[in-house]
Design goal:
Layout lengths: L2 E5 L7 E8 L6 H9 L3 H9 L8 E5 L5 E10 L6 H14 L5 E5 L5 H14 L20 E5 L3 H26 L7 H9 L6 E7 H6 L3 H6 L7 E8 L8 E6 L2
Length: 255
């Protein structure tokens, strides 16, 4: 999973960089400073590409100087409309376009610490790739990104929020991994064993074998699983979060 760090440094010095740009004439300071240092290369590229910072758009500038391999401009949309989801979407776009670099930087400009953290969450999810069974090295050429430094003047605020967002990212990555595994690998026993690893995160996990399922009257589920020579095909887990909230239940069946 992509490793995230937050830094209060404002100006990146080189490598692969993504800059989040709101829509409109006003550009963030990091864009203006970089553009000046690069003799207007970013402005020219944005004009040629028709990039205005509109949500969902991007502009890739390759090797604008000896120091930078690529600079990716990612549109945030109108400033007044930028929320957590917009920040996550932009972060995901940035990570996907920076995938050929092992390390990269994301400049969040004038975003708050909370929105910078959500952009980082989007980057983690955008960088996700299930390549466990890809034998050809070239298949992973666009998925090399391992570490992302997120630049924000509100690094302390982003750091404070990040643990809760990181938990969300880990949960999403686990779900994607499970969904992506072929059924002949993720059989009921293997599925149950992976589920039990969630106990390390404070979840209560109960795995039911066939007699227990028969006792509980799970006839329909057992009927589906008749052709599967596995002793366990169902598990449930219940977890309590740190704050006073209702118990949340999650159950899975695979057979």
């Amino acid at each position: 999973m992509l490793q995230i760090s937050f830094s209060s440094e404002i100006r990146p010095v080189g490598g692969s960089l993504a800059v989040l740009v709101p829509q409109g004439e006003t550009r963030p300071a990091v864009f203006t400073e970089l553009d000046t240092a690069l003799s207007g290369a970013l402005s020219r590229a944005a004009k040629a590409e028709g990039f205005s910072g509109k949500e969902g758009t991007s502009c890739v500038v390759l090797a604008p100087s000896a120091a930078f391999e690529r600079i990716v401009l990612v549109g945030l949309g109108k400033t007044e409309d930028v929320d957590a989801f917009a920040a996550e979407k932009a972060g995901g776009t940035a990570a996907s376009l920076l995938g050929r670099a092992e390390k990269a930087t994301l400049a969040t400009g004038d975003l708050s610490g909370a929105l910078a953290a959500h952009a980082a969450l989007g980057a983690v999810l955008g960088a996700y790739h299930f390549g466990l069974y890809h034998g050809a090295p070239e298949a992973l050429d666009n998925h090399k990104l391992q570490a992302l430094s997120v630049l924000t003047p509100h690094a302390a605020d982003a750091d404070a929020l990040w643990p809760s967002l990181l938990a969300v990212a880990r949960g999403v990555v686990l779900a994607r991994d499970l969904v992506s595994e072929p059924a002949n690998v993720l059989n009921p026993v293997e599925f149950a064993e992976r589920a039990q690893t969630l106990r390390a995160h404070g979840l209560e996990v109960e795995v039911l074998d066939r007699p227990a399922m028969e006792k509980l009257g799970f006839g329909a589920l057992l009927g589906v699983a008749q052709a599967v020579p596995m002793s366990r095909a169902w598990w449930s887990c219940a977890g309590m979060v740190a704050r006073p909230m209702p118990r949340r239940w999650l159950s899975w069946a695979r057979g």
